[in-house]
Design goal:
The structure is a single chain. The protein has 851 residues and is α/β, with parallel strands linked by helices. The protein is built from 27 helices and 23 strands. The strands form 3 sheets. It has a 15-stranded mixed sheet. The chain has a 5-stranded parallel sheet with strand order 2-3-4-1-5, sandwiched between helices. The protein has a 3-stranded antiparallel sheet with strand order 6-8-7. Helix 4 packs antiparallel against helix 6. The longest helix is centred in the N-terminal third of the chain and has 36 residues. The chain is globular, with a radius of gyration of 29 Å.
Length: 851
């Protein structure tokens, strides 16, 4: 990486050395002196790292020193991780009933103990040599600022979308719409291809998408599709993306000929509009292979191609390219002031207005640069901060295709956010991030620091990191799925991706059909072409994989050869922390060798339609923190899942009718559980009370689910409950007996949402009553057969938001009996009532006392 981040890694190591797992075995293994020496050297080095990282940009010697140090620190981290792995395995063995003598022998046996001792001594020697060199650089000891101050929560809503790059683009929009709306004439090209050309950051994609979404454009076409092409123009992948946009099918198991036939069948006789975004391919032959397939649509079909390359426009365009100009200076100023100033702040700070004008002049009329720096300065009134942006040395650096403004924005990030941002470059361009998954990925690599608040979990801190990067416009296309209270999706602008990739290039490698290289410093790997990876990269660089910590397979692993090769290569990744397979792969059973990846913390295989079972070896992964299995569903989730004692995050799709007891219910560390798309599932496990740390439970699209277990009312740590699209579910799952006078347990629910539950007749009173002192948001939607609110609704003392929509029976009952739409709950600040499909919204402000 351009920045070594050695201080962050050293801090993590010191934390590991102080952990109970390591402390417990220091004496047992006779490693007390060695580990104490390691800790002493680390502290001495750590004291000067802050100064070193500040000086590295102007001193090549310091930069090289930090690089050498980082490599040793990574190796030290691997050794301490091995110790933690063995400790976790001992914990499992004890839990499952082995004798203490066997356990003690296992952990004090000579081979393992001697191997660890030897590795630690080697690391101490290397660190001592590096530590001795620091005196050459005249580095001073500095106190490290560990506080992670984030922007105000209110800035969350000021994401990229709040400052549309379309400001000042009215004429461009009108011209392109007029061209697309023109009727087909004999002699016109088929399909018509309009390239939109311009440098990165001008808003080509935003403009193209807004045009395609315009009602007076969509009405002219039978089918609208879009596909992001990016750097690697693979004909097969482009066709797959177009098909997926048209039908939502992935078609990973189809070969090239079958894909072409399917695309022709989709387009045949239909007038379509296709957006090919971010095209770089300058090989005319590749376009000539795709073009005949796209000609199968009806006359009048049209395409928009966005590109930075005039050559691409010449190859693909059938009409004159639309060259997107720089944004007018006045529009840039308007955009910047909107991003940078709170309401009324401009008038109070005329000095900043002048500095802002100078900053905008340096952005050279590029909207992305203007937006990015404006958001960096939002709400800040210190003139020195504004001047530091204006006077940054980055403005003078020679162009490398990345805007200086983006480099300045990155430079202003806190260190912990810099690392999180750079790690995002392991995912391919146009990747759809999901906040909960991204946080788990960061956690797998130790990028999230525990806050000073003991009640705040790492997941909470990680979500704050996400919100901060969104508010600073490092992410865009923010999509709050299910109101954003369940999860949210977003993307990274391709220029932002370029920035992250350029800064992280020493540690990150991308394997594509054009590039098969991997270096000894590669720690993170993106595979865009599995065939190239298995048959060219692996054989050519057999010794460069042991240090890899994350790998993302961005294409499908299809065919028996690739499947076998994948299983073989798993043994090469001895220190892998995260593994993701993004597209459909031909695994009916995941490779057994997965169990050898004892450092693995994050495992996600997405939309795999064929996988039916998990290998038994996967339950050896005691370090695994996040497991996501989606697709058509596993035939079963075995009880052995209880061995995964570190699991905090589980996304499950299963074909089972019932979840077995002694499995999921034994996961005491589990914080988040998604049970989704389980069409056959009728009952959950009855031992859910064993989920002693569960904070978020999401149950969705389980059409056969009849009721929830009684044990759900024992989840005293549960804070968020979301249940939606379960056709047969009756929420009186706890079989609440009227005569039962047992006091409900005290619960911690803050957010509850019930949506599209047509079989539900009443709400679960015990859950609501138990959350009287915690529930803040209560949402009920699309539950047409609920007739009354439980009496305890008036006792929800912390309730701030109550929304009930699509519940006509409830609204009529309340109106008939009380003459009002709602019971008199005066202390709720915001009530939304749309029970009869009306748009009424009533606000109540007052004391928080009971009615």
């Amino acid at each position: 990486m351009a920045e070594a981040f050695a201080a962050d890694i050293a801090k993590s190591l010191l934390g590991k050395l102080g952990s109970l797992a390591v402390q417990e075995l220091r004496l047992a293994w006779g490693l007390e002196d060695d580990l104490a020496r390691l800790e002493e050297i680390l502290k001495a080095i750590n004291a000067v790292l802050s100064d070193a990282e500040q000086k590295q940009s102007k001193n090549n010697g310091i930069r090289l020193w930090l690089h050498m140090l980082r490599e040793v620190l990574y190796d030290a981290e691997d050794v301490l991780d091995e110790i933690e792995c063995e400790t976790l395995q001992r914990q499992v063995v004890k839990t499952k009933g082995s004798t203490s003598r066997k356990v003690l022998h296992f952990f004090t046996s000579s081979p393992f103990r001697l191997r660890m001792g030897h590795k630690i001594k080697k690391i101490i020697e290397r660190l001592a040599e590096i530590s001795a060199l620091k005196s050459e650089f005249n580095l001073s000891e500095q106190a490290v600022d560990c506080s992670h101050v984030l922007h105000e929560e209110t800035q969350m809503n000021r994401s990229f979308e709040s400052f549309s790059g379309l400001i000042g683009r009215d004429k461009d929009t009108e011209r392109i719409i007029n061209l697309l709306a023109e009727p087909f004439k004999v002699g016109d090209a088929h399909p018509l291809v309009l390239p939109i050309v311009g440098m990165g950051g001008l808003g080509k994609t935003s403009l193209a998408k807004s045009v395609c979404d315009a009602e007076n454009v969509k009405s002219h076409f039978d089918l609208k599709m879009e596909a992001c092409v990016s750097d690697d123009f693979s004909l097969k992948q482009v066709i797959q993306k177009i098909i997926k946009s048209a039908t939502r099918e992935r078609c990973a198991d189809l070969d090239g000929g079958e894909l072409e036939e399917k695309l022709e069948a989709i387009l045949n006789g239909r007038k379509y509009l296709l957006l090919l975004d971010d095209v770089w391919n300058e090989d005319a032959q590749k376009w000539l292979l795709l073009k005949p397939l796209l000609s199968k649509g009806a006359d009048g079909s049209k395409m928009i191609v966005t590109t930075r390359s005039q050559r691409v426009a010449e190859i693909m365009g059938t009409v004159t390219a639309y060259n997107l100009s720089l944004l007018g200076q006045e529009d840039c100023l308007s955009l910047f002031y909107k991003c940078a100033f709170k309401e009324g702040q401009m008038e109070l700070n005329p000095n900043l207005v002048g500095i802002g004008k100078e900053i905008v002049a340096k952005c050279k009329q590029v909207p992305l640069a203007v937006i990015n720096l404006g958001t960096q300065l939002y709400g800040k009134t210190d003139e020195k901060e504004w001047k530091s942006v204006r006077d940054s040395e980055k403005w003078e650096e020679e162009g490398d295709g990345i805007l200086p403004a983006l480099k300045i924005s990155y430079q202003r990030l806190p260190t912990h956010l810099k690392r999180c941002f750079l790690y995002c470059s392991v995912f391919p361009k146009d990747y759809l991030f999901v906040d909960l998954y991204l946080v788990q990925f960061w956690m797998a690599h130790g990028l999230i620091h525990q806050s000073s608040n003991p009640n705040e979990k790492l997941e909470d801190v990680g979500l704050r990191y996400v919100r901060e990067l969104i508010s600073r416009c490092f992410f865009q296309d923010y999509d709050p799925i299910l109101d954003g209270i369940v999860l949210a999706a977003f993307k990274m602008h391709d220029l932002m991706h370029d920035l992250a990739s350029s800064l992280a290039q020493n540690e990150f490698s991308i394997i594509s059909s054009q590039n098969h290289q991997i270096s000894k410093t590669t720690r993170h790997l993106t595979v865009l072409d599995s065939d190239s990876f298995f048959h060219k990269t692996l054989p050519k660089f057999p010794n460069n994989f042991h240090q890899v910590r994350s790998i993302v397979f961005a294409d499908s692993i299809v065919g028996p050869t690739c499947t076998t090769d994948f299983e073989k290569c798993l043994l090469e990744f001895k220190h892998l922390r995260s593994l993701e397979l993004m597209d459909d792969s031909e695994f009916e059973a995941f490779p057994e060798r997965i169990g050898a990846l004892k450092h693995l913390r994050y495992l996600k295989f997405d939309m795999n339609a064929k996988i039916k079972r998990l290998p038994k070896s996967i339950f050896k992964l005691q370090n695994l923190q996040a497991l996501a299995v989606t697709g058509e569903g596993l035939e079963e989730l075995p009880k052995d899942v209880s061995y995964m004692i570190s699991l905090r995050f589980l996304v499950l799709v299963t074909q089972q009718k019932r979840l077995p007891e002694g499995g999921i219910g034994c996961l005491e560390c589990l914080q988040t559980l998604f049970i989704f798309g389980c069409e056959n599932l009728e009952n959950l496990c009855e031992d859910m009370q064993g989920l002693k740390s569960l904070r978020k439970l999401v149950i969705g699209e389980c059409d056969s689910l009849i009721f929830l277990p009684r044990s759900i009312k024992c989840l005293t740590t549960l804070e968020e409950l979301f249940i939606f699209k379960c056709k047969e579910l009756d929420l009186i799952m706890i079989k609440e007996e009227k005569e039962e006078k047992i006091q409900p347990p005290s619960l911690s629910l803050r957010i509850v949402m019930f949506e599209e539950l047509p079989a539900t007749l009443a709400l679960p009173e015990q859950l609501l009553q138990g959350s009287a002192e915690s529930l803040q948001t209560f949402i009920i939607r699309g539950c047409p057969n609920i007739e009354e609110m439980p009496e305890c609704i008036g006792n929800l003392n912390k309730l701030q938001n109550l929304e009930i929509t699509g519940c006509p029976s409830l609204s009529k009952r309340c109106r008939r009996e009380t003459g009002e739409d709602w019971p008199k709950i005066k202390h709720i600040p915001k009530i939304k009532n749309d029970g009869d499909d009306s748009d009424e919204e009533t606000s109540h402000a007052g004391s928080s006392s009971k009615p």
